[in-house]
Specification:
With 265 residues, the protein is an alpha/beta fold. It has a single domain, classed as TIM Barrel, CATH 3.20.20.80. The protein has 7 helices and 11 strands. An 8-stranded mixed β-barrel has the order 1-3-5-6-7-8-9-11, surrounded by 4 helices. The relative contact order is 0.22.
C-alpha cells in the first residue's frame, strides 16, 4: 500500500503459506495513491483489462489524498469500478478517522470501502491498534450499513513481530473481533498467501500479490505493468468478472444512513 509495508510479510520466518479454496482468480484490480502517476484511465481499462481501482483517500485523522477527488470521476468515466481506502494510524481515535474517511469519500452505491490495517513502517509507534481498527469498522458500519474490507497480512493480524523494530499488535485479531466480519484484502507477496488465523475458513476476497517496490512479488516487475499508470499494486480477486461486479456492489449496497457521521470532517 502507500507505505509498502507488506513486503515484510514475505520475510517472516516460520510462516505457513495457505492457498485459498477457490480456483478462479481474476487479475483485474489495482490500488493507487497520489504518489502514482496516472496518465489515462481509459488505457488502463482497455489495454490492461483492469476493472477496478481502489484509491487512497485518507490517513489518520487529518490527511486527505490530494489526488482522490479529481481521479474518481476520471476513473468512473473510463468504466472502472471505484473504491477508497484509509490508512489507519495511532494518533487519532478510530471513530474520528472513520469520520474523516467518510466525509472525504462520500460513498455511494458503487464505492468500495477499505481500511488499511498494517504496520506503519515509517513510524511503527504510530501504527493503528486493534481497538482503533474495531472502532473504525463500527463507525463505518453505523454510517453506511456495511462493513469495509480489511487490508492486512498474516504476520500483523496474528501479532507477530515485524520490521527491523519487531513492532507488533499488543493483541492479535481474534475470532470474535468485529474485523472478522469484514472481507479480507490480503497483502502477501509470496507465490501462495498465508491467511491470518482469524480469517481461516473464510479466506481472502482480494489478494495483493505484487507491489510497486523492487522486491514486490514473485512474478517480477513485468506483471505489475499497467497501461496508463505508473506505480500501482496488483490484486487478484477470488472469483470471475461477474462475481467481482456482484461483490463490489453487494459490499456497497446501501448509501449512508447516518448522514451526520458521513458529512463530518
Amino acid at each position: 500500500m502507500c507505505l509498502a509495508a507488506t513486503p515484510a510479510v514475505a520475510r517472516v520466518n516460520g510462516s505457513r503459506p495457505v492457498a485459498t479454496k477457490s480456483r478462479a482468480r481474476l487479475d483485474a484490480v489495482i490500488d493507487i495513491s497520489h504518489s502514482s502517476v496516472v496518465k489515462d484511465f481509459s488505457l488502463t481499462r482497455e489495454k490492461s483489462h483492469i476493472l477496478g481501482v481502489i484509491h487512497k483517500a485518507t490517513e489518520g485523522g487529518d490527511w486527505r489524498d490530494p489526488a482522490y477527488a479529481r481521479r474518481r470521476p476520471q476513473a468512473e468515466a473510463a468504466g472502472l469500478l471505484w473504491g477508497a481506502y484509509h490508512f489507519g494510524t495511532h494518533q487519532y481515535p478510530g471513530a474520528q478517522q472513520a469520520a474523516l474517511f467518510l466525509a472525504t469519500v462520500q460513498p455511494n452505491s458503487s464505492t468500495l470501502l477499505a481500511l488499511d490495517f498494517e504496520l506503519n513502517e515509517l513510524n511503527p509507534a504510530n501504527s493503528m491498534t486493534l481497538r482503533q481498527a474495531e472502532d473504525f469498522v463500527r463507525a463505518v458500519r453505523a454510517a453506511t450499513g456495511r462493513y469495509p474490507m480489511i487490508y492486512t497480512n498474516a504476520a500483523w493480524a496474528d501479532g507477530k513481530p515485524m520490521g527491523p523494530t519487531g513492532h507488533r499488535l499488543h493483541s492479535q485479531v481474534g475470532p470474535k473481533s468485529i474485523l472478522v466480519n469484514c472481507p479480507l484484502w490480503l497483502g502477501d507477496y509470496r507465490s501462495q498467501p498465508e491467511v491470518p488465523s482469524a480469517w481461516q475458513g473464510k479466506g481472502w476476497h482480494f489478494w495483493q500479490y505484487a507491489g510497486d517496490v523492487e522486491d514486490g512479488g514473485p512474478r517480477g516487475a513485468r506483471v505489475r505493468g499497467v497501461w496508463g499508470i505508473e506505480s500501482c499494486d496488483r490484486n487478484l480477486f477470488r472469483g470471475d468478472e461477474k462475481a467481482l461486479s456482484r461483490f463490489w456492489r453487494q459490499e456497497t449496497g446501501r448509501p449512508p444512513v447516518n448522514k451526520r457521521l458521513a458529512q463530518r470532517g
